[in-house]
């Protein structure tokens, strides 16, 4: 859509307020709001934002980054294509924004602009990317003691769990469809009160936008039902964690052919697919600092948790970080995709998707190969067997992941200096803050914020 199309649609739908949204380095959706009467002007000139906001951590503590202080301004510039009327928020719409410097160039710390740069990099290689998040979330209530308790204790995939979640899930599905997001599969998951809802794959930028919309929609609809929805990776220490798995495929820009598909390969994966997987695995120890982006993430990222604690790949191996997913019968080529399981919804999706795809493209450029695939749980292998197969354990804490991110110079080069420095500073500050508190504080804070 063009700007005038957005303005006409907003007025036709009775919109009064429009949220200009961005996602910060903590993975939190933030923004400013304009009245519809000023919408056209704001879409042309943007809304001012202090650079300091990208130095805020999840506690709203400003980190000491020289380029991100009270001095200066960037503009929130909306993407008309991302405009959505919010079905759960009367007379309100939202639009996703890039952060643009006053010289009219993308700001160096803008996550959405970073993802756009990776999309261009792929297109220069003749590649387009399709992706989607497969999100798990927990539905809970506050008890008399002010603690979060799951809405039920039904079993994994159980019909009883479907009944317990039915009213809120139906409204979530309806709200997503109203915003142009197509739900695909749903079921109650292993944890008490845990549910999984997948949506259709799209182009890479829309996939990141959809992840923001999805998270906000689920939380808002649950709130209307008197329920709290949380995407916290490990909301309860004794229950399964919430993943935000990324499914992705690469396509030939000219022929629209799925470049992952090879009918003659034992795993049905092409040579470029193996190269792409090798790039992700090669950089995965640092990459998880971006895809598993919170302190709480590493309670989930443990062996035996179906969350992929090892940098390995395999066909339908749900304990491997990269799972080559089985295709749909009758639609084999188009449905061929790879799933990154070492990912959750505390991540900024623009950074996570951008860094993951950049890692894969690095594997293609260098013609790397991932080695042998693994058809067992890597955690059941001995240290010697994993060493022989080149399987490395992923970081066990955010601090360890950040160190891997810093050690792998690929990420500083890929993200750029300011984005890299601001992200690592924010995340290190969050690690330090949670280290001063106990486990219940960590669980409750993540439950509420994510």
How many distinct domains? 2
First CA to last CA: what distance?
31 Å
Rg, rounded, reads 21 Å
Summarize the amount of helix as a percent range. Answer: 25-40%
Number of distinct beta strands: 18
> What is the highest CATH level, the class of the largest domain?
Alpha Beta
CATH architecture of the largest domain: 2-Layer Sandwich
* CATH topology assignment of the largest domain: Creatine Kinase, Chain A, domain 2
How much β-strand is present in the residues? 15-25%
CATH superfamily of the largest domain: Glutamine synthetase/guanido kinase, catalytic domain
Judged by helices, strands and strand pairing, the structural class is alpha+beta
Give the overall shape: globular
The low-confidence runs, each spanning 5 or more residues with pLDDT under 50, are none
Main β sheet profile: 10 strands, mixed
Tally of DSSP helical segments: 14
